[in-house]
Amino acid sequence: MKRLAAAAALVLALTGCAVTGQPAGPSVVAEWNGVTVTTDDVAAYTEAFDALDAPTDTGAIVTMLLLKPTVDQTAAANGLLYSDSDLDSDAQMWIAAAAGEQVPVTDEMRDAVRQTKSVWDLFGIGDVATPILDAVQEIQTDATSSPLVGAFSADQYYTSLNNAGTAASNQTAVMGNVAYLELRTTSGFTPNAQQPWMVGEQPATAPAAGDSATPSATPAP
């Protein structure tokens, strides 16, 4: 019941944040390249991560859903196909890692596991993750998003990915094969940041000459 109430509150918050001039309707959280992330999508995946006893930030969920088609296509192209039984097993291990209560695994819970595991495995293979990095750059340039989550930043995504990858590597001895669940926090949106629309537009800070937007470290398998 608490999880349902939290998801309902999230929908109300996201719906209520539409402002004049925003390109998306009040039920749309973000759009990019034919991908539309709605308040219902965010609520469903918020419930899924909560049921996995692995809650994450709204921005991380929006990031995951924007990248989902790219991640799915890249994973399939590289033979990373996970059966429902594999995903169910991992979901149960996620819950066990948090000493949580086991619950029936839903489709959204499976997909939350699939998306997180795919990103971990793809970056662990090496250059095959290039389509994801390309998509991240395009999202920064072309996506529209609700003011509640703010603007997507490629640099924020890379920093978040590297931090999550380091955390996963450090947790391997404790969590074993599901340490990759740390990547659920990867986000191109700044968590809990005051957004420019709240205080007036702020100029973007351009990277210094010679700076690279490519992650300096990527998760290892």
Layout of helices and strands, plus pairs?
Elements: H1 2-15, E1 28-32, E2 35-38, H2 39-51, H3 58-77, H4 84-97, H5 107-125, H6 130-142, E3 144-145, H7 154-175, H8 196-199
Antiparallel strand pairs: 1-2, 1-3
Helix pairs in contact: 1-2, 2-3, 2-5, 3-5, 3-6, 4-5
Which properties best describe this structure?
221 residues, mainly alpha, 3-stranded antiparallel sheet, 3 strands, disordered N terminus, disordered C terminus
Q: Stretches where pLDDT falls below 50 for ≥5 residues? A: 1-23, 193-221
Number of helices: 8
Radius of gyration: 17 Å
Q: What structural category do the secondary elements indicate?
A: mainly alpha
Q: Mean pLDDT, rounded to whole units?
A: 82
Order of helices and strands: HEEHHHHHEHH
Largest sheet: 3 strands, antiparallel
Silhouette: globular
Roughly how much helix do the residues carry, as a percent range? 40-55%
Q: Biggest sheet, strands in spatial order?
A: 2-1-3
How would you portray this structure in words?
The protein has 221 residues and is mostly helical. It is 54% helix and 5% strand. It has one domain (2-193). The chain has helices at 2-15, 39-51, 58-77, 84-97, 107-125, 130-142, 154-175, 196-199; strands at 28-32, 35-38, 144-145. Strands 2-1-3 form a three-stranded antiparallel sheet. A hairpin with a 2-residue loop joins β1 (28-32) and β2. Mean pLDDT is 82; it is low at 1-23 and 193-221.
